[in-house]
Amino acid sequence: MSILEAIILGIVQGATEFLPVSSSGHLVLVPYLLKLTEPGLTMIAIVHEGTLLAVLAYFRRDIWEIVKGVLGGLRRRQPLATPESRLGWFIVLGSIPAAVVGLLFESYFEEVFGAPAVAAGFLLVTAVLLVIGERLMSGKKTLTHITWLDALIIGVFQMFALFPGISRSGSTITAGLIRGFDRATAARFSFLLGIPAILGAGLLAVFDIVQAGNLGSQWPTMLAGFVAAAVSGYACIHFLLTWLKQRSLYIFVVYVVLFSIVSFVAISF
Q: DSSP labels for 35-89?
């Protein structure tokens, strides 16, 4: 993979990890449609780490308060005493379903990830999920009111995003809307919930790189993809949170449906 291809891959990952349009689907379909070098799982994990940096930087104050709340709760032996400590533990709880299923069926998801037609089909599932979220949006709960059941249900929806084409942010935002959160709050929890998943993928990538032993030849390409993903990811977090304060998810429904149709046409010919 060239440095230019890595930058394109990073921009695609950063832009689509947080927008509800499926980063995994785009990482499968964009290289296929543009005739780019197919990215390996290690490169995909590296650009995911770029988006991890983006979300850590954007929510640095929130994360610091959560960490302080969790540690303070453990020290006082009251782990759920404050909204910040509860949020921290609920992020852990919500991360469990995807982690367990991903580890148990890792080889299956790796196989599915290489199928453009599958990714294009699951994009339509993302569109359906977003419509369901908009139609069932029922309240304006904030993160101070989140419960363990909210976190677990949103975590189960995150598990669906193991399939390429199903948006992680889209599925978890939909679950948040169903559970009574407003759009911006649902997106905020979605981004925070994504931190453990993205971090886990990055640790696996580091392990693969160390095993391969060829970091010297690949680091410029990986660095280019990492930086591109971090910059575009940070910008898209800000864009989506601003957008959802006053606007709906329907524009993303239209986009993923059109992208799915274009992808199916290109695959067919």
A: TPPPPPHHHHHHHHHHHHHHHHHHTHHHHHHHHHHHHHHHHHT-TTSSHHHHHHH
pTM of the complete model: 0.89
**Domain boundary assignment for the chain:** 3-268
Q: pLDDT tens for residues 69-86?
A: 999 999 988 888 899 999
The first and second tokens of residue 213, run together, are: 């032993």
- 215 has pLDDT over 80: no
The Cα 261–Cα 107 span in angstroms is 28
SS3 269: coil
Please report the pLDDT score of residue 179 as a whole number: 93
Q: Which amino acid does the sequence have at 18?
A: F
pLDDT at 229: 94
- Cα 28 from Cα 265, distance rounded (Å): 15
Phi and psi at 141, nearest 5°, equal -65, 150
Contact between residue 165 and residue 119 where contact means Cβ atoms under 8 Å apart: yes
Report the distance separating Cα 269 and Cα 264, nearest Å.
9
Phi, psi for 203 (deg, rounded to 5): -65, -40
Contacts of 202 (CB under 8 A, 6+ apart): 45, 46, 48, 49, 52
pLDDT tens, position by position, 98-152: 888 887 876 766 666 667 888 899 999 999 999 999 999 877 788 888 999 999 9
Nearest to residue 134, comparing CAs of 250, 222, 16, 220?
250
